[in-house]
Design goal:
Layout (H helix, E strand, L loop, with lengths): L3 E9 L3 E6 L2 E6 L2 H4 L7 E11 L2 E7 L2 H10 L7 H10 L2 H10 L2 H4 L7 H11 L11 H23 L4 H11 L8 H11 L5
Parallel strand pairs: 3-5
Antiparallel strand pairs: 1-2, 1-4, 2-3, 4-5
Helix pairs in contact: 2-3, 7-8, 7-9, 8-9
GO biological process, one term: DNA recombination
Family: Belongs to the RuvA family.
Protein name: Holliday junction branch migration complex subunit RuvA
């Protein structure tokens, strides 16, 4: 696996750059934000992942290791290939993408071309527990926010299991959730059901 490349930038295109390493020019696919930082004739260092297919070997480059990690993680979800994973990182910065997954933010995820509601729900279900969204503030704030996200996600999942749509569940939870407070799963579920007209 080619985990990184460092060398002179020979050219920069709309979706890739050519970087010379040891006399060999590597075509590296990258998002526009990364390509915008590269200048022909200057040295560049990119974290990379080599994707092997029967008919092609494609090298993808990233400005940091976090982006590369998310690129690989996204592809563990059925239906998400390297092109779609790269598109997600082109639309959402790593921090926003992690936050969208951990918060179950379907609206934000569907901003990515090629990802619909069902695809976004699948991403959230499969990756929510595998990402840790960067949070600002002290340790107490971080723990509180993370706990709140977990409770919110559990309640949304429970409501969907009861037959409500993901959108209905999210809107109900948003109405009863207390900002920056973890809350209690059973209390929040009862409150959300009351909002939805099904008191338990």
């Amino acid at each position: 696996m080619i985990s990184s490349v460092r060398g002179e930038v020979l050219s920069v295109g709309l979706d890739h750059a050519v970087i010379e390493v040891g006399g060999v020019g590597f075509a590296v696919q990258a998002v526009p934000a990364t390509l915008a930082t590269l200048r022909r004739g200057t040295e560049a260092h990119l974290h990379t992942t080599l994707v092997v297919r029967e008919d092609a070997l494609t090298l993808f480059g990233f400005a940091d290791a976090d982006s590369r990690e998310l690129f690989g993680l996204l592809q563990t979800v059925s239906g998400i290939g390297p092109r779609l994973a790269l598109a997600a990182l082109a639309v959402l910065e790593p921090e926003k993408l992690r936050l969208a997954l951990s918060d179950g933010n379907i609206t934000m995820l569907t901003q990515v071309p090629g990802i619909g509601r069902k695809g976004a729900e699948r991403l959230i279900i499969e990756l929510r527990d595998k990402v840790s969204a960067p949070l600002s503030g002290g340790d107490g704030q971080v723990e509180s926010r993370a706990a709140g996200n977990a409770v919110r996600a559990d309640v949304v999942e429970a409501l969907v299991g009861l037959g409500f749509t993901a959108k209905q569940a999210e809107q109900a939870v948003d109405r009863v959730a207390t900002p920056d407070a973890p809350g209690d799963t059973s209390r929040m579920l009862r409150a959300a059901l009351a909002v939805l007209g099904r008191k338990k």
